[in-house]
């Protein structure tokens, strides 16, 4: 693959070796164009070098950050899970039959027709219909 410098050198060789380009003005014009191309090539090479250095630097920062995250978040899988599923306020109730502690979201307290059963003995621990019935009895008195 030819570099830009090689292509410019090829064009310079054509201009210098072509006997048909005898006019000083045309030769001067071509020389100035090639000088501009040389300047553009220099700048482009500087940009490419700076980009490579930047990529190396960012790679090192990424590596250092990964090490820092490993040190700071020792159990990162649990932390990632917590970020995706923020913890809802939980209610703990004890089963009247087997004394198993059952946890459920506080939001279930306010939903209609929710029945929470013990996973151990299948006893109903919480039923929103019972709460509604209690509310109606209090309202009647």
> What would the average pLDDT be, to the nearest integer?
79
Along the chain, the helix and strand elements come as: HHHEEEEH
Termini separation: 95 Å
Calculate Rg over CA atoms.
39 Å
| Helix/sheet category | alpha+beta
Report the principal-axis shape.
rod-shaped
Low-pLDDT stretches are none
List the helices and strands and how they pair.
Elements: H1 4-17, H2 24-72, H3 76-84, E1 90-94, E2 101-105, E3 115-117, E4 124-127, H4 128-140
Helix pairs in contact: 1-2
Compact overview of the structure:
By secondary structure, the chain is of the alpha+beta class.
What does this structure look like?
This protein is an alpha+beta fold and 141 residues long. 60% of the residues lie in helices and 12% in strands. The protein has four helices and four strands, in the order αααββββα. It has helices at residues 4-17, 24-72, 76-84, 128-140; strands spanning 90-94, 101-105, 115-117, 124-127. The strands form two sheets. It has a two-stranded antiparallel sheet with strand order 1-2. Strands 3-4 form a two-stranded antiparallel sheet. β1 (90-94) and β2 form a beta hairpin.
């Amino acid at each position: 693959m030819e570099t830009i410098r090689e292509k410019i050198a090829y064009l310079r060789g054509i201009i210098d070796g072509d006997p048909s380009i005898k006019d000083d003005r045309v030769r001067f014009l071509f020389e100035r164009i090639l000088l501009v191309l040389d300047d553009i090539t220099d700048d482009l090479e500087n940009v490419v070098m700076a980009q490579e250095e930047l990529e190396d630097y960012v790679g090192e920062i990424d590596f250092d950050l990964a090490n820092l995250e490993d040190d700071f978040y020792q159990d990162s899988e649990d932390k990632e899970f917590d970020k995706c599923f923020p913890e809802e306020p939980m209610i703990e109730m004890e089963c009247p039959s087997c004394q198993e502690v059952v946890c459920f979201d506080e939001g279930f307290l306010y939903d209609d027709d929710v029945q929470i059963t013990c996973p151990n003995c299948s006893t109903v621990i919480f039923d929103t219909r019972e709460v509604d019935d209690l509310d109606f009895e209090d309202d009647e008195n």
